[in-house]
Amino acid sequence: MKPLAYLTGYAPEIIEEVSDMLASDELGAWLLAKYPQCHPYRNEKALYAYAQELKTRYMRQSPALAKVAYDPRLHVLHNALGIHRKVSQVHGNRLSARNEIRIAAMFRKAPQAFLDMILVHELAHLKVSEHDRSFYQLCRHMAPDYDQMELDTRVWLTYTDSVGDLYEADAGPA
Ligand SMILES: [Zn+2]
């Protein structure tokens, strides 16, 4: 059996349960039953507005966010679900940095909880760069159910990796 790379670090019982559901072809139905609908933030204008809304609500004291984008070049490997970066720009003789968040394009057609998980994660990185205790505290402040959302997102990634797109077919046009 293929190792479930996205679930590395989770309890053996969880990994076994997901493997079993994958092997018996039940994982897709389980995901669709729990998360039947996709979020409405298909274009980047809507995505940016939504990210700003979350940021204003939960992280008032945080650096400005210049851009939020879906990035088709981001492959969900090595846990790079999303990235945040500071882009340096030269204005005359002054160098300034602006914060950007890029998330893997597969999140364009995904349930709200999975988009929230990745946005909350990347927003938290505006304040905390490491995956330490304070980082996860901030994630849970924005999304109390963060841990479950991350696990379920990883289950979806496992499904996508082994079987294929789950939400592409009936999600409608972008
Ligand atoms: Zn991170």
Protein architecture, described:
The longest helix has 17 residues. A three-stranded mixed β-sheet has the order 1-3-2. The model has no long low-confidence stretch (mean pLDDT 86). It is elongated, with a radius of gyration of 17 Å. The protein is an alpha+beta fold. The site of zinc ion has 3 residues, from loops. Zinc ion (ZN) binds next to loops.
Secondary structure tally, helices: 6
Please give the largest β-sheet: 3 strands, mixed
Give the overall silhouette.
elongated
Bound molecules: zinc ion
| Strand order, largest beta sheet | 1-3-2
Q: Which parts are unreliable, with pLDDT below 50 for 5 consecutive residues or more?
A: none
Average the pLDDT over all residues and give the rounded result. Answer: 86
Oligomer: single chain
The number of strands is 3
Strand content: 15-25%
CA(first)-CA(last) distance: 35 Å
Helix content: 40-55%
> What's the Cα radius of gyration?
17 Å
Derived from helix and strand composition plus strand pairing, the structural class reads: alpha+beta
Question: H/E series, N to C?
Answer: HHHEEEHHH
